[in-house]
Amino acid sequence: MKRRRYVTDVKRLDGKTVLITGGNSGVGKETAVALATRGARIIVACRDPEKARRAVTEIRLQSRSLNVCHMDLDLANLSSVRGFCKDFLQKEKRLDILINCAGMPSVLDWTDDGFSMCFGVNHLGHFLLTNLLLPRLKESAPSRVITLTCSSYKYQKLDFQDLNYNLLPFFTYCRSKLANIYFSQELARLTEGKGVSSFAVHPGFVQSGWTSHYSFLFRMLMQVVMWMFFVSTEIGAQTVVYCAVSDEAAKHNGGYFVDCRPAVLRPFARDEGVAKKLWEASERLVKLA
Which of helix, strand or coil describes residue 137? Predict the structure, then answer.
């Protein structure tokens, strides 16, 4: 197995505010611990208040920082996203780092707004969230947006006749991860010169709780596979932390990162025309004025 890098940058984040979707578990939680340890104010955005409260307690204990809190957010409901952003902008005067970490695996399910769960949560929910919080990111510049994706993007291209769904749930997931990459690139172009940097991160294949959406037999099988071949959540969080703190990463605005360094995308995933078309289509789908 390829040896993965650990972040060696010791930069502090005192006075910085970090918002992490899905920060209650997996890579998001490990990232929260790492950044809280560096002095950042951490806001965990999660749809389950009880899970979020438990996670906040654990993050505080592990990081030895009390500057960690949670806010309710359901990315599968665009009204919830709008309400969250309104509340956030009223309460929080800074947003230095936004980490779009929450995600759904390849399940056949639907959001409250009628989108496939994969595409609705992984792309559209984060698309609306980032756009509504963009004014605060610009005010807090230099700021960063880090969006988690996956190397499985390479197995699909976008179908603008039906962005939302594919008959095979795994391919819907692949499309959503490709959409994350295009989103990150277009965000970098649209905010160029405005102090907001954007990065897409593949954390590796991580031993996390994504199998909870599947049957007991599948979960047991995947536990064995993950134990043999997947990396820990601590290692998975390293590239996210790297993009949050590294001055070197800031030189690659709009870049795709793997193992704490820029990585090369397939040519079709670097198509500026497709990225722009997806951005405009996403604006229509979420009714972003």
Answer: helix
Residue of 6, 165, 173, 182 marked catalytic: 173
Nearest to residue 265, comparing CAs of 274, 106, 250?
A: 274
d(CA 138, CA 175): 29
Residue 173 appears among annotated catalytic residues: yes
- Asked whether residue 162 is assigned to any structural domain, the reply reads yes
Is the model's pTM score more than 0.85? yes
Chunked into runs of 10 residues, the chain (289 residues) has average pLDDT values of 70 97 94 98 96 96 97 97 98 97 84 93 97 98 97 92 77 93 98 97 71 55 56 85 96 96 97 98 94
Residue 170 inside a domain? The answer is yes
Residue 222: CATH number of its domain: 3.40.50.720
Angle between helices 272-285 and 169-190 (to 10 degrees): 100
Residue whose structure tokens are 């979020």: 52
